[in-house]
């Protein structure tokens, strides 16, 4: 498998406190990579920097052969790199459909206003995006709530909207930040099934998750972070047997 994302020497701090202290990692194209580590290890911050939400202080990020460090999120989304958030973001008053439509990729100057003003190409594109949004809603079994405001959805359905939002961008790589946290067991299984299917269709996934049962079942390889660095990488058995990993988790508990 070729390298899809590679991160070298990545640093980021806040108010003088160093959070990412030289992260090195590689995500292979087509993999379902797990990212684990004790609370505060810097996993979400890594996602925030890689997805363009925060600027790096130092280091290099490549998507394929292109250096992408410091690019704004919308430019990364256009290159097929998207992330989801632990808590679904967005516009609570919008319906599921409107929400998905917001995140469809558009050319500069396109969009709902252009469509309303009568641009033929823009109207055509909006129709395509609407088809895409409907298809994604059907796939994620959100079609029966597609006209409901996002606020009226259950916590688990909001997580599905986050995944749907990512799919609207036709992603190559999805960074998933705890997409099953706080979700009931049957919906967790449903989400796991969607993720496995998306990965089989060729989408590379990097998953932050604290549930080791899910990590073991879904991910290979697994990258362990602790104190702003990557510690170990390998199969679940390899990382679980590594004393450095055990110490990193125990160190936080006591
Ligand atoms: N915007 C920010 N401003 C200040 N400190 C921040 C900011 N973002 C993250 N941090 C700090 O960086 C550290 C790492 O946080 P981060 O959320 O990346 O860890 P994590 O590994 O994702 O943890 P968890 O598993 O608990 O979600 C924490 O001490 C956190 O307080």
Short structural description:
GO terms for molecular function: ATP binding; ATP hydrolysis activity. The chain is an alpha/beta fold and 254 residues long.
Q: What do we call the CATH homologous superfamily of the domain at 3-89 and 171-253?
A: P-loop containing nucleotide triphosphate hydrolases
What is the multimeric organization of the chains shown?
Answer: single chain
Strand order of the largest sheet: 6-7-8-3-9-10
Helix percentage range? 25-40%
Number of helices: 10
Assign the structural class, choosing from mainly alpha, mainly beta, alpha/beta, alpha+beta, or little secondary structure.
alpha/beta
The assigned CATH architecture of the domain at 3-89 and 171-253 is 3-Layer(aba) Sandwich
Question: Which CATH top level class of the domain at 3-89 and 171-253 fits?
Answer: Alpha Beta
Please tell me what the overall shape is: globular
* Average pLDDT for all residues: 90
Bound molecules: adenosine-5'-triphosphate
Uncertain segments: none
> What's the CATH topology label of the domain at 3-89 and 171-253?
Rossmann fold
Strand percent estimate: 15-25%
User: What is the chain-wise order of helices and strands?
Assistant: EEEHEEHEHHHHEHEHEEHH
Largest sheet properties: 6 strands, mixed
**Taking Cα atoms only, what radius of gyration do you get, to the nearest Å?**
19 Å
- Distance between the first and last residues' Cα: 39 Å
């Amino acid at each position: 498998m070729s390298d899809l994302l590679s991160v070298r020497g990545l640093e980021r701090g806040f108010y003088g406190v160093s959070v990412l202290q030289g992260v090195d990692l590689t995500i292979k194209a087509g993999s379902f990579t797990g990212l684990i580590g004790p609370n505060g290890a810097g996993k979400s911050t890594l996602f925030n920097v890689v997805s363009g939400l925060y600027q790096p202080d130092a280091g290099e990020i490549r998507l394929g052969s292109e250096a992408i460090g410091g690019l704004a999120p919308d430019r990364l989304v256009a290159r097929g790199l998207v992330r989801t958030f632990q808590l679904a973001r967005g516009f609570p008053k919008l319906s599921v459909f409107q929400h998905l439509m917001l995140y469809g990729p558009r050319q500069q100057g396109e969009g709902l206003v252009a469509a309303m003003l009568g641009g033929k190409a823009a109207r055509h594109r909006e129709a395509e995006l609407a088809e895409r949004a409907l298809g994604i809603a059907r796939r994620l079994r959100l079609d029966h709530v597609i006209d409901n405001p996002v606020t009226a959805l259950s916590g688990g359905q909001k997580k599905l909207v986050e995944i749907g939002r990512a799919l609207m961008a036709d992603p190559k790589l999805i960074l998933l930040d705890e997409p099953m946290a706080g979700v009931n067991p049957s919906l967790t299984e449903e989400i796991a099934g969607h993720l496995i299917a998306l990965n089989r269709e060729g989408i590379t996934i990097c998953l932050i998750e604290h549930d080791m049962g899910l990590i073991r079942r879904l991910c290979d390889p697994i990258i362990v972070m602790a104190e702003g660095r990557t510690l170990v990488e390998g199969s679940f058995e390899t990382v679980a047997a590594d004393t450095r990993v055990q110490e990193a988790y125990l160190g936080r508990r006591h």
